[in-house]
Design brief:
- The complex is a heterodimer of chains A (239) and B (286).
- Chain A has 2 domains: 1-79 and 155-239, P-loop containing nucleotide triphosphate hydrolases (Rossmann fold, 3-Layer(aba) Sandwich), CATH 3.40.50.300; 88-154, no CATH class.
- In chain A, 38% of the residues lie in helices and 28% in strands.
- Chain A is built from 11 helices and 10 strands.
- In chain A, a hairpin with a 2-residue loop joins β9 (205-210) and β10.
- Chain A is globular.
- Chain B has a domain at 24-216.
- Helix content of chain B is 75%, strand content 3%.
- In chain B, α5 (138-160) runs antiparallel to α8 (184-206) and α6 crosses α8.
- The radius of gyration of chain B is 19 Å and the shape is globular.
- The mean pLDDT of chain B is 93.
- Classes of the chains: A alpha/beta (239), B mainly alpha (286).
- The interface between A and B is medium-sized, with 27 and 16 residues.
- The complex binds adenosine-5'-diphosphate and magnesium ion.
- The site of magnesium ion has 3 residues of chain A, from α1.
């Protein structure tokens, strides 16, 4: 069953057309990825889903409802949470305060303590760093805090914008494992990556954007063996 | 000598606390909405006029008058933000001009309703307290205790309350705050309301000390400006440090050299800060 449907989604920033009539579907309980080079329109697409970037035309259907004009707080309440590009933690607040803000909305506040334990379960290092300022964390810890903060809202859909950006390979593997186990708890994951290999290994279905338009889509095991993908995103070598 | 030192300290602390009340609201509103609130002094004035009306004319209890006047000023702030400023959030120049218009309008309204002349209310608290051979005016103590209590409450609110946390989040990164489910508009109203309320409290506390007129907000507004430049625009700790610094400097220099010299010294400090640390004592470099 599809949980999210993008119908002819367009995003314009003034004269710049960032996303052009994108059609996509995200299956309930799946991990889906959007690939593409820098500037392809990946973050804009996620921004629309999170209610942060206004849709120019087209529709977003979530759980059977038209949420095209929803704002960010409405999307969070509806169960769609974005861990944005560059993590965007509140650097002057502690890890605990960042996580507390993640559980700002009504339904998340009720299960706060329980969810906090779950997040500390995924990321034990956050428990150790609980009272440290988020700005003082290492890159890997910041990404964990950003994913943890998004989880605090008890989302149905987790949107991840380039979670591997700037992380050491060892940390990337760790984060990938955790994304998989988060998905196993029933949370639908939509992941945007320039690191195509990581995203294709994690996901079951993928979309490839090129300058705002859909270039290719398919099951990830097919995309992994696609010549075009290999040359453009996997460095041309056999994966 | 001891008497004089303590006198300077008590005056410095009372003025300092009033400056902090003024500057905190000003810096909070700027930090969250990026609005330079030129009407801040007028909320101070409305707080003082509230005391003139409730305590002076109608004869209500002074403390109840403070509570009621201050809540009304907070509500006025919420209305001004929602109706007049919301459309200009993030556009610094436009919102500044709108705030200026609000200031002039409030002054004119006060002049029409209460007259342009200077008025005064009787001191609700009189007499001096003698502690270890030192005399401290009782009304100073009342002002100090109320201001301090409200400042501590405000600190606890910002530090621990859900909405306080949300305010700090919006000040740091409004888009990221929206992604947590925070409605920026609600936080704008709250911040402007709380900021106005603090200015109104400063006015209500100073009403029996100074004369009351539609234009009485100009000086405290300027003082809030100085404090905020000293401490760093948008910085809460900066407002506290700057307020105390200004309070003590004023008290010290006006005791020995008169208030004109004291004001000159205050502006001298501002010039020095702008030259050597433009982001202020506690401000982050932009
Ligand atoms: N806020 C913005 N204002 C103007 N142009 C933008 C804005 N955000 C993104 N763009 C432009 O839209 C295009 C797509 O950007 P983005 O969605 O961030 O791509 P990606 O995430 O794939 O790198 C780029 O050309 C970018 O320059
Ligand atoms: Mg991007």
């Amino acid at each position: 069953m599809s949980l999210i449907k993008l119908e002819n989604l367009c995003v314009d920033y003034g004269p710049i057309s960032a996303v052009k009539t994108l059609n996509a579907e995200i299956m309930n309980g799946s991990i889906t990825c959007i690939l593409g080079a820098n500037g392809a329109g990946k973050s804009s697409t996620l921004g629309c889903l999170a209610g942060l970037v206004p849709v120019s035309s087209g529709r977003i259907i979530y759980d059977g409802q038209d949420v095209t004009s929803h704002q960010a707080h409405q999307m969070v309440s509806a169960g769609v949470t974005l861990a944005p590009e560059g993590r965007r933690l509140f650097p002057g607040l502690t890890v605990y305060e960042n996580l507390r803000l993640g559980a700002y909305t009504g339904h998340a506040r009720e299960g706060f303590q329980e969810q906090l334990e779950a997040v500390f379960g995924y990321f034990p290092r956050l428990r150790e760093r609980r009272d440290q300022l988020a700005g003082s964390l290492s890159g890997g810890e910041q990404q964990m805090c950003a994913i943890g903060r998004a989880l605090m809202s008890r989302p149905r859909v987790l949107l991840l914008d380039e979670p591997s950006l700037g992380l050491a390979p060892k940390i990337i593997v760790e984060v990938a494992k955790i994304i998989r186990s988060i998905n196993k708890t029933g949370i639908t994951v939509l992941i945007v990556e320039q690191n195509a290999k990581l995203a294709l290994q994690l996901s079951s279905y993928g979309y490839v954007l090129e300058t705002g338009s859909l270039a290719l889509e398919g099951p990830c095991k097919d995309l992994l063996h696609d010549d075009h993908i290999r040359q453009a995103y996997l460095g041309g070598t056999a994966a | 000598m001891l008497q004089l030192t303590i006198q300077i300290a008590v005056n410095g602390l009372t003025f300092g606390l009033i400056y902090i009340l003024m500057a905190l609201g000003f810096t909070l509103i700027f930090g969250i909405m990026r609005v330079v609130n030129f009407a801040h002094g007028e909320f101070y004035m409305v707080g003082a006029i509230g005391i003139l009306l409730l305590f002076g004319t109608l004869g209500f209890n002074y403390y109840l008058s403070i509570v009621f006047a201050v809540l009304c000023v907070g509500l006025l702030g919420v209305i001004v933000e929602r109706v007049l400023l919301r459309g200009f959030v993030g556009r610094e120049l436009n919102s500044m001009i709108m705030a200026l218009a609000v200031a002039i309008t409030l002054q004119a309204l006060a002049a029409i309703l209460f007259g342009p002349q200077e008025q005064s209310v009787a001191r609700p608290v009189t007499g001096v307290l003698q502690v270890a051979g030192v005399f401290i005016p009782r009304d100073r103590i009342v002002v100090g205790v109320i201001a301090l209590a409200v400042l501590i409450a405000f600190y606890l609110f910002l530090r621990y309350a859900r909405y306080g946390l949300a305010m700090r989040a919006v000040a740091q990164d409004p888009a990221a705050a929206a992604l947590q489910g925070i409605r920026p508009g609600f936080i704008y109203s709250l911040a402007f309301g709380v900021g106005s309320l603090l200015a109104g409290l400063a006015g209500a506390l100073m009403a029996p000390v100074y004369t009351i007129s539609p234009f009485m907000g100009d000086v405290p507004m300027m003082m809030a400006f100085i404090v905020v430049i000293l401490g760093g625009l948008g910085s809460i700790p900066g407002a506290v440090v700057g307020g105390l610094l200004l309070g003590f400097v004023e008290s010290l220099f006006s005791t020995f050299f008169g208030s004109t010299i004291a004001t000159m010294i205050a502006f001298g400090m501002v010039v020095l800060i702008l030259l050597f640390k433009p982001s202020g004592l506690m401000g982050r470099a932009q």
